[in-house]
Design brief:
The chain is an alpha/beta fold. It is built from 9 helices and 8 strands. It has an 8-stranded parallel beta sheet. The two termini are about 30 Å apart.
C-alpha cells in the first residue's frame, strides 16, 4: 500500500500528465486552425491565378483518424464543411459536433452501411462516391423510406484506370448520371468526383478527363456546367485542381496533419 506522500506524488504525476495531454491537444488544435487558414489562402491564390472566384470552391476538411477536439477547433475557426472516409468514424463524430456542419462522405460506401449512415448523420449533405447503379438505388430507397429530403450525390469516376481505385469508367459516366437523374427521385445529381493518381505525374491528365466527362454529362442531361461540381484535388494537388476548374477540394493532412492509425499489437 502507498503511504500518504506516495499517494500525493501519484496524484501529482497524474495531474501533470493530464495537463501535458491537454496542452498537447490544445497545441494540435491551434495548428489545425492555422493550417486551415493557410489552405483557404492558397485556394484563394490559386483561384486568382485561374481568373476564378474562391467563392466557387468548397473546401472539405477531411478529418480521418483525428479526434473530435481537433475538428471542434477547426469548426470554431469558422469552417462548416467536413468529410469522412469511413461510416463508423462519421457515426462516432457527427453526434458530438454541431448540427450546422455539412458532412460529406468521401469513402467507398457498401450497401449494408447506407441505412446506418443516413439515420446516424441527419446533417449528411453529400455522398461523393456513387460509382454504380446498385449503390445509387440503395441510397434512393433508404432516403425515401426515411422521409429525408433528396441527398446530393457525386458520381465517382476512375480517371486513372487503376484497378485499385473505385469509380465508374469515364465512358460510362453519362449512363450512370442519367440513371441518378432520371430514376432516383430521392437523389440530387450534383457532379463528378475523382481521386487521380497519387504520384501526381498524371494528375493534370486525370483532371482533364474529369472535366471532359462533365461536359459530356451536362450535354446529355441538358444542364449548364456551372451546376455540376467537379470534386478533384487533395492535399498534394489541390492548387492545381483549383486552377483546372475544381469546385470541391478534399483536404486532410494539410489541415489536420498526418493520419494517426492505432499501432498493431
Amino acid at each position: 500500500m502507498m503511504n500518504n506522500r506516495e499517494e500525493e506524488e501519484a496524484k501529482t504525476d497524474t495531474t501533470t500528465h493530464q495537463s501535458e495531454m491537454a496542452a498537447a491537444s490544445a497545441a494540435m488544435d491551434g495548428v489545425a486552425a492555422s493550417a486551415l487558414r493557410s489552405v483557404l489562402q492558397r485556394v484563394n491564390q490559386a483561384a486568382e491565378r485561374a481568373g476564378r472566384s474562391s467563392q466557387q470552391i468548397r473546401v472539405v476538411a477531411v478529418s480521418k483518424t483525428k479526434p473530435v477536439s481537433v475538428l471542434r477547433q477547426v469548426y470554431d475557426a469558422g469552417h462548416r464543411c467536413f468529410g469522412e472516409n469511413y461510416v463508423q468514424e462519421i457515426l462516432e463524430k457527427a453526434p458530438q459536433l454541431p448540427e450546422d456542419i455539412e458532412w460529406h462522405f468521401i469513402g467507398n460506401l457498401q450497401s449494408n452501411k447506407v441505412k446506418p449512415l443516413l439515420t446516424g448523420v441527419p446533417n449528411l449533405a453529400m455522398v461523393e462516391t456513387v460509382d454504380d447503379e446498385k449503390i445509387a438505388n440503395h441510397l434512393d430507397r433508404a432516403i425515401g423510406n426515411l422521409g429525408r429530403k433528396p441527398l446530393k450525390v457525386l458520381i465517382q469516376v476512375n480517371t486513372s484506370g487503376e484497378q485499385s481505385k473505385s469509380g465508374v469508367e469515364p465512358s460510362n459516366c453519362v449512363e450512370l448520371a442519367k440513371h441518378v437523374s432520371q430514376s432516383c427521385a430521392n437523389l440530387e445529381f450534383s457532379g463528378l468526383m475523382t481521386i487521380g493518381m497519387l504520384d501526381y505525374t498524371s494528375t493534370p491528365e486525370n483532371f482533364k478527363t474529369l472535366a471532359n466527362c462533365r461536359s459530356e454529362v451536362c450535354k446529355a442531361l441538358g444542364i449548364p456546367e456551372e451546376q455540376c461540381d467537379l470534386s478533384m484535388g487533395m492535399s498534394g494537388d489541390f492548387e492545381l485542381a483549383v486552377e483546372m476548374g475544381s469546385t470541391n477540394v478534399r483536404i486532410g493532412s494539410t489541415i489536420f496533419g498526418a493520419r494517426e492509425y492505432p499501432k498493431k499489437k
